[in-house]
Amino acid sequence: MTILFRLLLFALIAVKVQAQPRLKATAETVLENLYQANGNKIYPKPAIEIVSDERHAAQFIRRSNTIRIGVKVFEVCRVFGKDSLAALAFIIGHELAHSFQLNTRQTSFLAYDQEDGADANAEKDADIQGLFNAWLAGYNTADLLPYIIEGVYVAYDLKGKTLSGYPTLEERKRTAKDLRLIVTELIRMYETGNYLTAIGQHDLAAACFQYVENRYKGREVYNNLGVNLVLQAMHLSEKNVDPYVFPLELDCNTRLKKPKADRGPGDLTPEQWQQRGELLAKAAGHFAHAAKMDYQYLTAEINYLCALVLNAKAGEAIEYCERRELVKKAGLLNAPAAGQEKIKLALGLAYAYSNRTEAIPLFDGLKNSTDAFVQYAATLNANVLAGRQAQLREAPPCQINFDTDAVVDDVKIHRPLTAAWTILDNAAQIEISTVLNKASELVVFRTGGQNRLSLQRMRRTGVAPVLSAATHLHALATNRGYIRVYPEKRAALLINEAQNQAVEWVKYYEFR
Ligand SMILES: [Zn+2]
């Protein structure tokens, strides 16, 4: 080796070593976003190690709980320009998914260990998890997939080689197309579930989230699933059984306007009482699971308390709240004020249903909350508790400044043309049909062979709504923004709060 060559080599290594802390920091930020979006904290977050390994692009090492990423991977990702982090999110998300593959109770993965060589099913599942997780975290990764995979294979000179137990590039690219369809479907189902939650079609929404849960076990999926089961349970009858407002409710007005039941067992049929109990028990199971996944996930704790109270287990809810010191924990975790207040609201409901006077100071103390929902719910609940007339607050009138009756893609929402039907829930006979049009997507649901609901999503963006201050009171928070429903127009908007504008709008039609 000549001295010059040695110097050059030294300089190259020095550059690489110098760049590594920066690469590591970038990778750690992406990993943190993915880890938070997934929310399964039973498994500790892996460490990141940057290596100049010529053989492995990225690898999950179980015994040290480390994700190793090759320097070349960053070079591959850099080619994607503004999407470079989205590309990196896929690779890290894929390895993070491997870290969850140990316990089949928590995930759908096969028992699998990277150290013993890969297997194609585990790889495919890691791809699906990685892509969906990246999407939940706000990275737009799915469209890049084939290019990322090819980039990695080329950079590591794996092209055209047979790797023991590992798919070839050709196989991987073939499955990439497949994967994109699967993940796009998962995303569509998750988003449809959100719209259905906001519209108030809770059994259909639960079926959508159940579909997602079959492939992706995330904190939010369990919580959303539980919320819809509770709301379904609360809306089983034409009469209203629950006089109070619960923290997980979005629109309590429709329910509270129903004729009041006299709180006797005859208010619901025996079958309805049984179904209500089953739905609430199932929901409590999902909330408990989500809370176990993430110790800091207060929303799941609040919702767990609600499911218990509604299921005639108020005493158990109080005991749980005390044993877990939830009020104190919310403070220690420095949770947002509204989250801390909602724990008190749920505890207040548990006291109210147990006929204990502690409910009064709890509700009274929340009446001046700065959170619109908490203030409203506490005031209404205090009135109900005192036997006073409850004042319902109406949603501000519709403020859409564009024509929601305009026909898009020739779709007649009340007479939709459907494609093949897929069974979503066998027991409830829920089926779905999806039609992709030029500027919109149409999903139609039917139950027992009868059309139930059609929902058309427009891909047009830049619809600027006039927002009112009360938006948050009747809006559903999602990973992509707030959904605000306009029942009188049978339309909904997905609003990006930061940009203060609608990023998507939908129309829907409920068949009756
Ligand atoms: Zn893998």
Could you write a compact summary of the structure shown?
Helices cover 48% and strands 13% of the residues.
Please describe the structure with a list of short key phrases separated by commas or semicolons:
512 residues; alpha+beta; Serine Threonine Protein Phosphatase 5, Tetratricopeptide repeat; eight-stranded antiparallel sheet; three-stranded mixed sheet; 16 helices; 48% helix; globular; binds zinc ion
Q: Can you describe this structure?
A:
Helices cover 48% and strands 13% of the residues. It is built from 16 helices and eleven strands. It folds into three domains: 186 residues, no CATH class; 187 residues, Serine Threonine Protein Phosphatase 5, Tetratricopeptide repeat (Alpha Horseshoe), CATH 1.25.40; 89 residues, no CATH class. The radius of gyration is 25 Å and the shape is globular. Bound molecules: zinc ion. Zinc ion (ZN) binds next to helix 3 and helix 4. The site of zinc ion has 5 residues, from helix 3 and helix 4.
Strand-helix topology:
Blueprint: H1 3-38, E1 47-51, E2 58-61, E3 66-70, H2 71-78, H3 84-99, H4 120-136, H5 145-155, H6 169-199, H7 202-213, H8 219-234, H9 253-256, H10 270-293, H11 298-310, H12 314-323, H13 326-332, H14 337-353, H15 359-366, H16 372-385, E4 422-425, E5 430-436, E6 440-447, E7 450-458, E8 475-478, E9 481-486, E10 491-496, E11 501-510
Helix pairs in contact: 1-3, 2-3, 2-5, 3-4, 4-6, 5-6, 6-7, 7-8, 8-10, 8-11, 10-11, 11-12, 11-14, 12-14, 13-14, 14-15, 14-16, 15-16
The structure holds zinc ion (ZN).
Zinc ion (ZN) binds next to α3 and α4.
